[in-house]
Amino acid sequence: MQMQYDALALFSGGLDSVLAARVVQDQGLRVLGLHFVSPFFGKPDQLEHWSRIYGLELTAVDISERFTRMLLDPPNGYGKLVNPCVDCKIEMLSYAKELLPAYGARFLISGEVVGQRPMSQRRDTLNLIRKRAGVADMLLRPLSARKLDPTPMEESGLVDRSRLLRIGGRGRKEQLELARNVYALPEIPTPGGGCLLTESESAGRFYHVLRYHAAPEHTDFQLANLGRQFWAGSHWLSVGRHQDDNERLQELARVGDYVFDVQGFPSPLALGRPLRDGAWSPETVRDAAALMASYSPKAVRSGGMVGVAVRHRDQVAEVRVHPSRDTALAWSEPGTDGLKEWKIEQSEARSGRAQDAGRE
Ligand code: SF4
């Protein structure tokens, strides 16, 4: 039989999420922490460890597909990089709400703090998130609860409001004090949960997929996270760094992809994924083969042409190339140049669609 809980808590592994769940659990209520996992965040392998050191019951929830659908066109736009924080919270809370009956739980907990983040944790944004997620009457934010209006859970006496907190603003002093002196946490986690969408290098990788892929799926973002990444316009090439990457590249390969393997020398595998322009020309295939072969030191040291096997749609052909990082297509690693302009275009297109919908 499924275990019964009083509340489900959003649990990223960041300090605020630990404290929010503990504050409610310490009132004698049974709390289950939901740890959402996607190509962008989530460390399910840490759950057992976290559960032990923080004294919480935790479970992983894969949100990859619905999160990716939202990421392609977040109604409230992106933050500093490609992080759609407002819609991310809405998506997670909506999903958590759907899970309530399965655990017999009556309300939700999140570790948001009023005024902590410039955009996603402003008071008006917190209200918007609550409403859009449809959780206005079942969401408790224990860290800032006494700065906010009482929720039905407090009004009914299910939760003792006097034992909730009134933390606000950007400082971390109160949270650190609670972690050290009240809960004596053996490890103090970092403030956030470690989201790749907010990190410049990863954001550059994801931005290229968003920009050039007409309909990316979550596995495209898993691929973007892997090994060395190169782009030449909308041509996308992923090169393994080690054996684990090579195995993962094989797993992620799809019909229509090109899989490159240098013949006669130890080398990484590479995977070319055609996007908008369809199948690659023979010149593009040769160019990509020359680039990936340049990551085989022995092939480079051989000083001559090398053979690269290229598998495409169950056919394997060999091309002969000089390993080189200076090829005609001028592949480059994906950065965030152009991201700002792209986000403005996206936002204008979104407003245009909203106006059109309003006129209909
Ligand atoms: S940082 Fe990442 S996980 Fe956190 S709210 Fe923003 S998008 Fe979501």
Automatic annotation (TrEMBL):
Residue span, Thil AANH domain: 4-143
Molecular function terms, GO-annotated: ATP binding; CCA tRNA nucleotidyltransferase activity
Entry keyword Nucleotide-binding: yes
Region spans: Disordered: 327-360
One Pfam family, short name: ThiI
Domain of life, per lineage: Bacteria
Entry keyword set: ATP-binding, Nucleotide-binding
Protein name, per record: Thiamine biosynthesis protein (ThiI)
Lineage: Bacteria, Pseudomonadati, Thermodesulfobacteriota, Desulfovibrionia, Desulfovibrionales
